[in-house]
Amino acid sequence: MTVTIYDVAREAGVSMATVSRVVNNNPNVKPQTRKKVYEAIERLGYRPNAVARGLASKKTTTVGVVIPDISNSIFAEIARGIEDIANMYHYNIILCNADKKKEKEIRVINTLLEKQVDGLLFMGGVVTEDHLQAFRTASVPIVLCATTDEQGLVPSVDIDHETAAYDAVNTLIRHGHRDIAMISGTLQDPANGFARFQGYKKALENAGIEYKEDLVRIGNYRYESGIEAMKYFLGLKKKPTAIFSATDEMAIGAIHCIQDAGLSVPEDFSIISVDNIRMASMVRPQLTTVAQPMYDIGAVSMRLLTKLMKKEHVDHAHVILPHETILRLSVSSVNEE
Amino acid sequence: MTVTIYDVAREAGVSMATVSRVVNNNPNVKPQTRKKVYEAIERLGYRPNAVARGLASKKTTTVGVVIPDISNSIFAEIARGIEDIANMYHYNIILCNADKKKEKEIRVINTLLEKQVDGLLFMGGVVTEDHLQAFRTASVPIVLCATTDEQGLVPSVDIDHETAAYDAVNTLIRHGHRDIAMISGTLQDPANGFARFQGYKKALENAGIEYKEDLVRIGNYRYESGIEAMKYFLGLKKKPTAIFSATDEMAIGAIHCIQDAGLSVPEDFSIISVDNIRMASMVRPQLTTVAQPMYDIGAVSMRLLTKLMKKEHVDHAHVILPHETILRLSVSSVNEE
DNA sequence: CTGTTAGCGCATTCAC
DNA sequence: GTGAATGCGCTAACAG
Questions:
Q1: What is the per-residue pLDDT for A190?
Q2: How many CA atoms lie within 13 A of A278 on its CB side?
Q3: Which bases of strand D sit closer than 7 A to a protein CB?
Q4: How many CA atoms lie within 13 A of A331 on its CB side?
Q5: What does pTM read for this prediction?
Q6: Which residue lies nearest D13, CA-to-C1' measured?
Q7: A4 touches chain B (CB under 8 A)
Q8: Which domains does chain A possess?
Q9: Distance from A88 to chain B by nearest Cα, in Å?
Q10: Would you state the pLDDT for residue A337?
Q11: Strand blocks (E) in A252-323
Q12: CA-CA-CA-CA torsion for B88, B93, B99, B101, nearest 10 degrees?
């Protein structure tokens, strides 16, 4: 039924070793016999069996990718960066959603390892000791993508979330705002949550602005929770003049909450956030935000992984990609009001 | 270095066949020896090699997924449906972006087949004879996801794009509109392009409205092209009162174009489209649209594929999932104007 | 219930 | 340049 390398060898009148050589582009084959083999391959419709090759060579040319949720546009964008570079280096990717659930993450890491991936890209929630333990049992390189482990034991690619948040809040401050609220993510989340919150606090502190707990609401990164948080701020006696949101999605929720209340952005409230998802430039007013290079985070982490897999020397196992403040129309100076 | 089934056998004092049995949950093992084996596995940190298993059993428990672009929210949503169901049936997915490029599609189909996937899910542009040819060389089941082939030779899961468009235009007509423009996709694209355009024409015809070529603009499905198209309509002497857009994204572009021109939706123009991406309810006014069940398209096609892979009987190899008109705020009656 | 024996399809020495 | 032999780690009969 299925045609093997052996069939091709017989058809071409050579040994299977020779067929293997031409299939793998080994130069030590006479052009003439190479041609014969190609013809036999064509005639028989031979298709190399990558599983057998993987067993024999101990390389599968596939990498595992653990991702929180591919339907989240941020991760989808990162994934595209990963796949493009993987493709460029002739790797395929096995994609596993793990929803930032530790248990699920550990499980898929193991099945990926069983499948003998040549490397692993991990995007997840907190990197716990159990994760590190699972990584240790792996005999292939691993890189953290859009996350880091606390001790910096695992190669990683990410942005500096704290500074990104700091910069965002700072542009608010530079516009004269001093009553600045924050819509945060959960503080359990080290990157998008805790670090961005820290950046907020530091910016305030640096400007000599008192931190007030009732100006911070915890959301879940989603649009709806941005609306909820903003509703709360709207109910305050002493309202803020600006809002810093940990993510664009919540910021957009806040904008719509404000507008639905008959007020406007940035006239009544300035809004800034971090991410720069596509939607940020597809709202009115267009959202001012600190862009994180999603595609590049994916691309660079995959590139790093290819180096590790080829045992090439890498001098920067911990890459911090630059972020950039994109001034659009959701922030104005207090004076203008 | 790597511990094999043979090491475990020695450690447990049994044969490798027995180890294989307990690893594969074969009931024919005495609980006692099963325990011994588990302990040996634990002690040695044994991890089954799925590649070797795949070679021996001729099953890899992985399926290939060809997708146009994972960073497109529609496909990302479908992909999530696919992966959830795959996961449920203990399959992993190899994800390949092919950007609707025929050449790239054929190439990844072949590498997926080389990797011995147990099945293939195909999302792409046009399904050409070359695609069918590639499918024929496969010895594993294939299902088309969010596409169909013209002759209906390959199992598929999709919505009825023409009727979805028809319904959309019809709700415009029921609201009293007769000057209805369309922002279409390329007519080369059978589903999102041609079929939706046909639905538009049929709805007009059915209502006795003359089809006018200058009321149709071709976009590329993206936000910006929606803006462009709307600019054109705004420049017409005899302007339409309603716009039907083939996709939500272009519709949102149209809305913003209108608003940026100082006009409003739905007061000056009613807008309707097809898709129901998340963003549709995150614009002001919220977009009225015909929803296609993205997640379900993915889930159902994967479910169908599992049945095919298990050689179970399926009576509907061509599934059409229902669409549904979601009335929001971007459409109003002409009388109200 | 358990062990023995063959391959699965290919890469890879090692000779020639 | 080319061929013969070996084994990658596991499943799957087949015996017993």
A1: 92
A2: 18
A3: 1-5, 7-13
A4: 27
A5: 0.96
A6: B17
A7: no
A8: 5-48 (1.10.260.40), 60-159+294-323 (3.40.50.2300), 161-291 (3.40.50.2300)
A9: 12
A10: 44
A11: 270-275, 288-291, 318-321
A12: -120
What's the pLDDT score for residue A335? Answer: 65
* Distance to chain A for B246, nearest Cα, Å: 18
Identify the H or E element spanning B44: helix B31-44
Structure tokens at A296: 């590049």
Mean pLDDT of chain B: 96
Strand C proximal to A211 Cβ, under 7 A: no
Taking the CA of residue B162 and the C1' sugar atom of nucleotide C16, their distance in angstroms comes to 69
Chain A positions in Cβ-Cβ contact with residue B70 (cut-off 8 Å): 70, 76, 79-80, 83
Asked whether residue B19's C-beta has any atom of DNA/RNA strand C within 7 A, the reply is no
All residues of chain B having their beta carbon less than 8 Å from the beta carbon of residue A113 are 47
Contact present, A76 and B80 (Cβ < 8 Å) = no
Which class for B69: exposed (0-12), middle (13-18), buried (19 or more C-beta within 10 A)? middle
Contact state of B50 with A116 under an 8 Å Cβ cutoff? yes
Contact A14, A37 (CB under 8 A): yes
Q: What is the mean pLDDT of residues B120-133?
A: 96
For chain A (length 337 residues), average pLDDT per consecutive 10? Answer: 91 94 92 94 96 97 98 97 98 98 97 98 95 96 96 97 98 97 96 96 98 97 97 97 98 97 97 97 96 98 97 95 98 77
| Residue B190: Cβ-neighbour burial (10 angstroms; 0-12, 13-18, 19+) | middle
Structure tokens belonging to residue B247:
């996709």
- Tokens 């709806």: give the residue: A224
What type of residue is A128? T
What whole-number distance in Å separates Cα of residue B255 and Cα of residue B331? 11
Cβ-defined contact of B83 to A93 (cutoff 8 Å)? no
Dihedral in degrees, nearest 10, Cα atoms B174, B179, B183, B186: 100
Q: Which of B80, B137, B282 sits opposite A97 (nearest CB)?
A: B80
Q: Which pLDDT value is given to residue A333?
A: 95
**A138 closest CA partner among A160, A159, A116:** A116
Scanning A227-256 for CB atoms below 8 A from B yields: 252-253, 256
CA A70 – CA A76 distance, rounded (Å): 5
- For residue B87, the SS3 value is helix
Please tell me the distance from the alpha carbon of residue B186 to that of residue B164, in angstroms, as a whole number: 17
